[in-house]
Amino acid sequence: MTLSPRFSLTVGGLATLCLAAIIHILVVLGIPHNVQHSAYDNAAAYGPDRRFNLLPDVEPGQEALPDLDPAMKHAVCRFQLGNGPVLFDASIPAPFWSIGLFNAAGETVYSLNNRTAGAERLSMLVLTTEQLSILRENPPENLEDLIVIETDEISGFALLRAFVPHPTRAAEVDAALTAASCGGI
Amino acid sequence: MSELITRPTFLSRGEADWYEEKLPRAIRPYNSNPLRTLAAVFLVVFFAALLGISSAYLVIEREQPLNAVTIGPWHAYPKAGTADADPYSVAIYTRGALVPLASGEGLALIARQDSSGHLLDPTCVYRIAGQTPTARLWTLTAQDGRGHLVETLPGRVHLASQSLLRDPEGNFQITAARNPHSGNWLPLAEKAKASDGLQFVLRLYDAPVTTGAALDGVSMPQIRRLACP
User: Which intervals hold domain DUF1214 (chain B) (predicted)?
Assistant: First the structure.
């Protein structure tokens, strides 16, 4: 059997389109597995893990991480729950601050701001389900006052943002962000 | 008419030359030509790869996640950077190592066009006026078309809601321009060409409208072009 030229062209075109669609989907799905620098990797450049590292001020040409607000100061803390639960503790003298927890892929896990935190002081405990059941057997005294977040994500990072209302307050906010703790109980 | 004339001549040829050219294509014997087949398969694979990879590149490089929530010239992507994000936003966010503004923190809205639909141009003067959704704090930042901050005359690139001048009703007017203006001035890039592009980013902090559904019907500032060189 011989196909007419027009029929073979149609079949060829359809085959090209179908194959192109498959390749398009594979490329889009493959990008997250092939990126060289994730936000989690970039955060490592600013200091050791399991402590808040102050990011340089967001200024033209020297943005520490992309898409940060120049009106804010930021501190980042990388953590691995394999090394035990992480306790975030900070007291920031700013009219607005917020903290976002992200997994190693850069997806939001949890977030809150100083109004939803319910207190002027941030005290938040992040742990895995097993670590929580161990902790419940012998609970620390202040467990009631902590915001406890159970997660399946073993590694991730926290980004603390604090609004600087006026340049004269910058040093104060810097000091509070540097003093924020991100470590064991 | 032509069919009536050709059919008798076709029938008169007899059985001996049934494989000849005059036979309908569908029953003509197939003469295999491996080189032609190989070339056809190669062409199909080549063009499919070209089309598939270039279309994926264009969509990702545009850095505009799909399913945006649009209010006038402003776009928000409440789902990008969460576990519910679509594959395109996942690819864009991981490729750019972008850290999203989480829903408990606030919501970022981006404008790439003015209210009449023209692309924003860093050499022009814009008037941003109106109201924002309820938020404890918001900031307005000017950046280039690729999302980077730019050098400006006074060195700052943003305005914050708590230091704005407002009229007695609480409305505000912001002038975005390269050169100083009275009132609320948002400085634009000092040495920008029109091709560098311009984006306004409005970040609402601690706002009730951090989910997409709550964004329906809220009022956002208008962006009007006042003058262009």
Answer: 106-207
